[in-house]
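re the bet — no i am not wrong, look at it urself. input seq straight from the record:
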Amino acid sequence: MSSLITRHLIDHGFKPVALEDKPVIKSYFQKENSNFSDYSFSMLYAWSASGTVFYRRFGETLMIARAIRGKIDFLYPPLGASNSEEFQAAVSQCAETFSAISRKSLDAISGPTAPGGFSFKILSIDENKIKWADQLNLENYKIEINEDLPDYIYEYQKLIDLSGKKYKNKRENINKFVRSYPNYTIEPICEENIGPILKFLSRWYIENKPQRQIQISELFDINTVNFEKNYILESYQSRRILRSFKNLDIKGECIKLYSGIVGFIIGEQTSSDTFTVLIEKVDNNFFGLSQLLFREFLVRNAGGEFINTSDDSGMPGLKVLKESYQPLYMKKRYFLNLISC
């Protein structure tokens, strides 16, 4: 079923996403100028397994589709849509394309099918475009609007200064680390240290491996949120970003103690006023290391007024950690569920 859908996507003008497509896709993200953490080619490339993510232009817009286990979803709303008419036109074309592909795939397996019974999602929609989505009128489709996990947005200067009582613990943790390990060094990620960083990452995932094995159906279910799923997807994402580091517009640093890697962090400028932290992994045996690396990385690399640390993946522990840095606001994210009828 998956190979059939892939072939039909290509037949309908979709192209598999590859590194060489970065200039084209990045130009549409730049038009959006969104401060969502996933509105970047780096994140798109990191999360996409080879041969599962495709893109196609619809008029002045770009649509990006993901095909996994016989199901198609669109990872973003129409990128580059400047008004509700362009948004409506692109979504309508996507719905027509989706219906045609789904019917062809099912017909090839079980013979002609009756109309209806298909569904797809359009993910990562902000509050402005959800107003356009609310005006959608698609023939033969029922449209549901759902709220997804929000991003955490912070004021850059507050994360640098760490002033006041609310940040007292952060300051104390950093000071304790510096006193305990004065010989630490921080250096940019480059070709020479990516190998050692990947080895550190492998150790980190071994030491933090969950006890329960996840089912494959959970892994690709958008409604499933658990530590095991996050562990596997993040492991894949981190390795993919590191292995393609020099070809992506991202910045990274690693921290060394006793000549060995004990942590690294990666981020990028995702909009004109927002820098997003994509990945951070540290050896938790060194108290205060995480807080130090996070702040030093922002001082050296971040631009703009705001910092985005993505969502909390629905994990209570991560939620507490992100809230402890006092977010300015939560960037709401929505998705559409379109059900044929």
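see?? The radius of gyration is 21 Å. told u. also DSSP finds twelve helices and twelve strands in the chain. so pay up
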